[in-house]
Design a protein that fits this description.
With 335 residues, the protein is an alpha/beta fold. Helix content is 41%, strand content 15%. The two termini are 29 Å apart.
């Protein structure tokens, strides 16, 4: 039973069916197809504004290309010290900007604070994740406060939204409220972690940034010749709010898991989306893995801390089996 990541699960059936439909007949190439056009229209509807979209294969590309559209080679990017763009993307923002540097800041529970960001006098781009690497969320007012600081410095605002759907359902807000209405310029909106095969979409809320991003998108190799297969995943993702339904299931599984573990183990971070960070003794880790449960070490948050990730396909039975194994193991009398 796999709690390593929401990346380890397969695709939603609706997305597989959409790919099969897209395989019929012929369509224009390089994003000039009707499916990509429908994705653009659907995003405009979801975010209630005029915008431009750039489908890409990976979240790393989505983040790096978004940042490059706002950041010159001599510029700088403020981010959290635990940010994915800093620890996991192997310098992609620096590569695509041609040399801009990251300015990492500390902050509780994986979040930037307005006070810390305000202490940086000059920067070109502010980047933060929704949800964060700690599984926490920025409220609408927090996004707005950070964006206002960036605006005061004529800096752009990038949101790493690899788990944006999880944030939207947890916050109970409209997608626009926690993005462009709160000051976000570009959102790298994820789908792969939430039921897609391999699809993300850069959502650009400012026309001039779309013009800047277009050549980066092409030169990076993410303007696919058969774009319809990328866009077909996104169209299915947004149809009938599949993206929100999937995220709601993942979040609910995490809440169920955390509720069952709290009386036995220490939960070390707030559970606001689909991550549970928990302190597990080594002997119990061995027992759990011996019973077929898999999960990641997360020593960044302290010794013996592990991340349990839930996904749209995580079942109640899997969650309950994990909880029951913990319960019986910690309550068993010593020999």
């Amino acid at each position: 039973m796999d709690f390593r990541s929401d990346n380890t699960h397969g695709c939603s059936p609706e997305i597989i069916e959409a790919l099969t439909r897209a395989n019929r007949g012929t369509m224009s190439s390089y994003g000039d197809d009707e499916i990509t056009a429908r994705v653009r229209d659907r995003c405009r509807e979801l975010f209630a504004c005029d915008l431009e979209v750039f489908p890409v294969l990976t979240g790393t590309a989505g983040n790096a290309l978004s940042i490059a559209a706002m950041t010159p080679s001599t510029g700088s990017i403020v981010c959290h010290e635990e940010a994915h763009i800093r620890l996991d993307e192997l310098g992609a923002p620096e590569l695509f900007t041609g040399g801009a540097r990251l300015i990492p800041l500390s902050g509780a529970d994986g979040k930037l604070s307005a006070g810390h960001v305000a202490g940086v006098e000059t920067f070109s781009c502010l980047s933060f994740a929704q949800t964060t690497e700690a599984g926490t969320l920025y409220g609408i007012d927090e996004v707005r406060a950070l964006s206002e600081i960036a605006r005061a410095r004529s800096a752009g605002v990038h949101m790493d939204g690899s788990r944006f759907a999880n944030a939207v359902v947890s916050l109970g807000c409209a997608p626009a409220d926690v993005s462009w209405r709160a000051g976000v310029d570009i959102l790298a909106l994820g789908a792969t972690k939430n039921g897609a095969m391999s699809a993300e979409v850069i959502v650009v809320f400012r026309k001039e940034l779309a013009e800047a991003l277009a050549p980066h998108w092409h030169r990076s190799g993410h303007r696919l010749s058969k774009m319809r297969f990328l866009s077909a995943q996104l169209e299915a993702y947004f149809t009938d709010d599949l993206w929100l339904c999937n995220a709601r299931r993942a979040n609910a599984a995490a809440s169920r898991l955390a509720a069952g573990l709290r009386e036995h183990l220490e939960i070390v971070r707030p559970v606001e989306a689909n991550f549970v960070f928990v302190s597990i003794p080594p002997s119990l880790v061995e027992t759990l893995r011996g019973r077929g449960f898999d999960f990641y070490d997360w020593q960044l948050f302290g010794a013996d801390v592990y991340r349990l990730a839930t996904a749209y396909a995580t079942t109640d039975a899997e969650v309950d089996a994990f909880i029951e194994t913990v319960r019986t193991s910690v309550s068993r009398p010593r020999a």
